[in-house]
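fold description:
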Amino acid sequence: MVADKSGLLTPRSWLSELAKGERKRLMGASLCGVLAGSQTITLVVGLAWLIQQLVVEARSPSVLLPIFALLAGCVVLRAAFQWGHETLSLEASLRIRQRARAQLLDKLAELGPIWLTNRHSGSLANQVVEHIDALEGYFARFYTQLRITLCLPLLILVVVGWLDYLVAVFLLLSAPLIPLFMALVGMGAERLNRDQFVAVSRLSAHFIDRVRGMATLQLFGHTSAAQRDVWYATDEYRRLSMRTLRLAFLSSAVLEFFASVAIAVVAMYVGFGLLGYIEYGPSQALTLFSGLAVLLLAPEFFQPLRTLSQHYHDRAAALGAAESVVNILNEPDLIVQEYLGPHEASAVIELAGACVAYPGRGHVIGPIDLAIEQGEIVAISGASGSGKSTLLALLAGFIRPSSGEYRRQANSQVAWLDQQPCLLHGSLADNLRLAAPHASENEMLVALQHSGFAPLLTQLPDGLDTLIGERGIGLSGGQAQRLALARVYLSKAPLVLLDEPTASLDHDTEKLVIAALLELANDGRTLVIATHHPAVISAAQRHFMFEKGELTEVAK
């Protein structure tokens, strides 16, 4: 990617980089637009010549049939070039947006779950969908129209100069007024669009937060206040949208005014010149053909500029959307992408003097020296907030050490179970297949048996097809934890990291889960468990204690 001198992407450099990937289609679309405009010039000049021949020269229409056929062919060619322009530009825009969305999703994956937990999912979803879609108008319309505007008016200016150089000079002098005003308008439009995208992202996050907390709001009787908050946020977005639209309509009106005045001046010049009131320069040589041709070409000279001004808000919208996306793309990666082989062949994962520091919080844990062998069961205990979850995230590769070294066997997959397992709206089978997409029904039943979920499954009339809500709505905390444990059993990851896997479980279920974890270790899988429970600690082969951010092994 192209970046500025600081090494960071900018909205303009990112948009330019995206355009390079579809340069052929975009250039082809621009060429088709210029060729369509050239057919319009041929039609206008040909029509003016025909009128001259029919009115002034009094020639028979039958004699001019070949010219009529030629102009009809120009009409067909113009339609074909316009179709090619629209088809190529829309295809290029679609491919660019697909690539931009893939870049953003890949970046979110590289930032990892630790970064994502500090962001509103509604805002991120809006950026992935709405902000990327806001690039459509820029690449499908503005980008190609800008290149058409650079070429087609010059071509028309050459033809007008051949017919009447005085009109060409006037058009050349009046043309810069439109780009100048577009630049002035663009400064305000870009800022308004940026504010609008920030507002809609904030509104998305605000709305999703209220929907997720609807049960709590109803319980405490605060639904009216929540509704009022959403209304205020929506009204703010409405005001920003109306300000943007007002600016767009005002700029279009002013640009139309400039173009109309210029065309009117050309019309007056042609009219007075043909009547003999103007005797300056080429006006004495004006004929019906030349006068009508330059009069018809004058609107065509301004048409690319007017079209560009209509699409100028697409550029402002794209820059506003690109700024929010580029802010994410410029975030430093948190997930470890390269794995070095450990010093000892038997070690699955190894930390050497590893420390973790968070922005705004400073040093959190470390330095830590830790080597975990294949098939070991390692328990990590400590007070709440001592760093157990941070260490698990470091072992999983979700965050990079701020100093020290991290080594993990290449291609070593990790199964992760958080304190709040990620469960999606769907059936039990759908949630289980997140870990093993091709798992059979029997394999899922075995996994549920190991996790202690099987007794509940027998009470459900729909069995594996039972629907649950997002974040496990419909299940208790312990049931959701057991379902997530079953998903861990289904995965084939050799390294299993569990954060309080027996939390919210009763004593009997806890014994069942511990036995199942021991079976995983017997299968050669490595387990690292953050826990407070003595039963889990006693089942582990090694026990580490967190104290003031430092890890100490406890003799067993």
Q: What stands out?
A: Residues 11-330 form a domain with the ABC transporter transmembrane region fold fold (CATH 1.20.1560.10). The mean pLDDT is 82. The longest strand covers residues 347-358.
